[in-house]
Amino acid sequence: MKTRHKRIALIIGGLAVLGLVVALVLNAFQSNLVFFFSPTQVAAGEAPKGKSFRIGGLVKEGTIKREADGVTLRFVMTDTERDMIVAYKGILPDLFKEGKGAVAQGKLGEDGVFVASEVLAKHDENYMPPEATKALGDAQQRAAANKAAVEATAKTVKQ
Asked: How far apart are CA 112 and CA 106, in angstroms?
């Protein structure tokens, strides 16, 4: 085999390996891809049948019902337009409360009940990390101290 033929064979082999790697990565990405839908979109039939997806909204007031075993519960998630019953077996996050935002991941059952495998509680839009809260408080204290110093200086200058 000539050097030229070896080089061409090596390039073709490299492209084949690269194509295989890209195909495997795209396949893994596609199988782990989870879309987000609102209860209105699910009711309109936009959610995939038999595939895992996420549903998000507010937990409707007065709808959290625990089963006798203590870990299985049902609640209603709403986007204020449509409601969806969610069934979940497991321990809920601390921030999960009625009237607060939540996201559930799972599949839609044949009976129209969303069977969640995971429930996430959403932070409220006013949430601020403790470090940021402390920094903001410190900045406000420094601003108040500077204002007091400026006022004291202005008072002494007037006298």
From this structure: 12
